[in-house]
Amino acid sequence: MKSIVFAALFTSSICAMGSSALAQDSEATAERTAEQSALQMRADQIVALLNREIEPQEVFTDGFLAAVPPEQIDALSEQLTGEFGPAIAVEALDPPDGTRASLAIRLERAITRGGIAIDPNDDNRVSELLFQNFDPIESSPAEIEADLAALPGKVTWWFGALNGSDPIIANAPGDQMPLGSTFKIYVLAALAREVADGKRSWDDVVTLGDLRSFPSGMMQDWPSDAPVTLETLASLMISISDNTATDALIRVLGRDVVMETLIDSGHSQPELNDPFLTTREMFMLKGGPAGRLGTYAAGDAGVRAQILDGLEAQPVEQSRIQAAFSGGPIALDVEWFGNAADLAALYQFMLENADLRAFEIMAINPQTSDATEQLWNYVGYKGGSEPGVLNLTWFLTSKAGVDHALILSWRNEDANLDQDAMEAIAQRILRLPQ
To answer: Most exposed of 170, 253, 356, 424 (fewest Cβ within 10 Å)?
Structure first.
């Protein structure tokens, strides 16, 4: 799960503490100060700071503010309370005195945990503040669905057991939605199926090759003659969404093999993904001439295949791709598609037909807090995004051994998406009673 970091380890200098929204009058302030340690007082001020009831200059050392300016602190506070609601109180401070402690703050919909330090040579101002984990507080299904419905654009969701029982929450689960990099589960499934069938081994070594995609990932910077195992490619494809690793696997397997797995897994509209794009092809289509992109979007599988023929080998400057994806949403109908039922069916297909190492790979980056992960026996994750598109998909097994899925999809042709807002809601869903 993403961390929100205010800063780490800065020292500082002088300024007296000013008036605060925490203090009703000078007498109450003096009484509170007498009862509290300096560390406790500053921790309480962080609650007020998050609610923007007190100015950063009253709380932090000059060194901290030099590294993290007040306007940035205000923006981070607004982001945090926007996702999780207003700060309520200090949940824990251990130890309660001294100059350094672990800190937990209760917000309306989460408890955030991290650390705090004060500088006794600067009026005990805060010199360190780090929020690392955000553990959602339990919400009702109705509250969660209301928050999902309030997101701008189109949002679909499905969460429940995969045993045929009614889902815990669901909305338009049959609607096809762009998947972003979540499509890479299909590539993993195709590889794991061939391993299970004895056609390949996870230890098979291939050469990375000359073709490169664009970030995310790291393999775009590796030597073209680098020998890599199929398991390495798959692990990087899923855990850090490495696009070059993904394309290397599609070339090794063949796009027709990946499409065959997509069809055999029960995808309800496989034609939406025909031909099966590599990431480099998607980047080059959206970063290339508008006429080519429009023809591709309007064409059938045959027209699309003609456009893709030789496209990957054409040179393109990375700056051109970056420019295309630095603005708002672009051609959201040129993507990989699936709905909640398709992804749930893929999970079942993998359990029955794929080598189970695939599930270990999907669990490398579970994209949730340790506390939430402990609620489940297994947590596997893959998500994907581009401007205007976000998909978050978890495959899960409960403590009772029941398989579940959480599938969230969001698209908006008119604006970029607030990924943190969706992720925060997802973490609340993962804590719903199973």
So the answer is: 356
- Cβ atoms of 369 and 135 within 8 Å: the answer is yes
- Looking at residue 60, the DSSP 8-state letter turns out to be B
Calpha distance 2→369 (Å, rounded): 9
**pTM of the predicted protein model:** 0.78
CB 255 within 8 A of CB 293: no
Provide the greatest CA pair distance for the chain: 80
Q: Distance between CA 323 and CA 9 in Å, rounded?
A: 36
Mind listing the pLDDT tens digit for each residue in 188-222? 999 999 999 999 999 999 999 999 999 999 999 99
- The reported pLDDT for the residue numbered 156 is 98
The answer to whether residues 103 and 91 touch, using CB atoms and an 8 Å cutoff, is no
How many angstroms separate the CA atoms of 322 and 286, rounded? 10
Question: In terms of C-beta density within 10 A (0-12 exposed, 13-18 middle, 19 or more buried), how is residue 196 classed?
Answer: middle
Counts of helices then strands in the chain (DSSP H, E) = 17, 13
Q: Tell me the residue type at 120.
A: P
Kindly write down the DSSP assignment for every residue of 149-197, as one continuous string: HTSSSEEEEEEEESSSSPPSEEESTTS-EE-GGGGHHHHHHHHHHHHHT
Q: What is the 3-state composition of the chain as percent helix, strand, coil, each rounded to the nearest 5? A: 40, 20, 40
Per-residue pLDDT at 420: 81
Q: How far is CA 324 from the centre of its chain?
A: 22
Residues 6 or more apart whose CB falls under 8 angstroms from that of 374 comprise: none
Q: What is d(CA 144, CA 167) in angstroms, rounded to the nearest whole number?
A: 14
Cis bond leading into 275, ω under 30°?
yes
Q: Are 334 and 205 in contact (CB under 8 A)?
A: no
Handedness of CA 395, 399, 403, 408 (dihedral sign): negative
DSSP 205-220: EEE--S----SSSSGG
357-to-181, 227, 353 alpha-carbon distances in Å: 20, 21, 12
User: For residue range 413-434, what is the model confidence (pLDDT) as tens digits?
Assistant: 999 998 988 988 998 899 898 8
Which helix (H) or strand (E) segment holds residue 44: the answer is: helix 38-50
Report CA-CA distances (Å) from 237 to 157, 163, 177, 185, 273. 24, 29, 21, 9, 19
Which helix (H) or strand (E) segment holds residue 362: the answer is helix 357-362
